[in-house]
Amino acid sequence: MRPFRLRTTQPTPAERVRSILAAAHSMTVVADGVRTEVHRLGGEGAMGHVHLHEPSETGTGHARMRVPVRLELTDIAPTPVRERLRARVTVTGLLAAPYDANSGESTCMEFGQAVIEDSTGRAVVTLHELQATDLDPIATCEAAMLTHLMDSHGELVTRLLRLVPALPEDALVRAIPVAMDRYGVTLRLEHPGSHHDARLSFPTPIHDVDQATPQIHALLAAARRASHPNRLPR
Predict the structure, then answer these.
(1) Half-sphere exposure of 197 (CA within 13 A, CB side)
(2) Residue 74's closest CA among 117, 123, 120?
(3) What is the pTM of this model?
(4) Which residues contact 63 (CB under 8 A, 6 or more apart)?
C-alpha cells in the first residue's frame, strides 16, 4: 500500500522567497552602514543583480574583512486591496567588497539566511531549500494575470465566490484577487470593518504557465456546480 500524502495546496516558505526574489522590481541593499535603493531590476528580479552562493571556508581572519550585507524586499499585492503588503523578505550574508549598485555586474554574496514574514508569522529559509525549489511558473507574470482577471473579467471573480463557504447576507463589500501561484488563487474578501482571505486551490499544481487558464476554468466549472451564491452589494 502506498503511503498517504496530503495534497499541497499552497507554496512553502522557500517557494515564496524564491518567487519574491524573481519577481521583485526593487530592493534595498544595506552594506557597510549604507542603504542603497535599487530600482528597475530589469525583469531579472533581485537574483539578476546578486548571486547567492555557499559561505566560504576560508579562515576567520579573512572573514573579518568581508562586508556584512542585508537585502530587504517587500511583496506588494498588484491589485487595489486593503493592506497591500503581502510579505517582507530579508536575506543576509557577506560581500567580499562594498556593494556598488552601478557596477553593472552581478554581485557575489555569501548566503547567511533568508527570512520571510507575513500575517501568519515568520519562517527561516536556507540556501539549500532555495536551490532545491523550482521557480513558480506564475511568479513573474502573476501581477499581469491578477490585474487582467480583475479589470477584464470581474464577473468571473464574482462567480468564484461560490467556492467560498457561505457568508452572512450583506457581509461582503468587495472581493478582489490578491494572489496567484502554481497551487491556486487567493481572494481578499473585504467586509465593512475587516477583511480575510479565501484560498481556492487548483485541482492540480501548475507546472507551466500555459496551464494556468485551464486550471482557472476548472475552478469556474466547480463554481457553477456550487449550491450557494455569495453575493456582492449592487
Answers:
(1) 18
(2) 117
(3) 0.89
(4) 56, 94
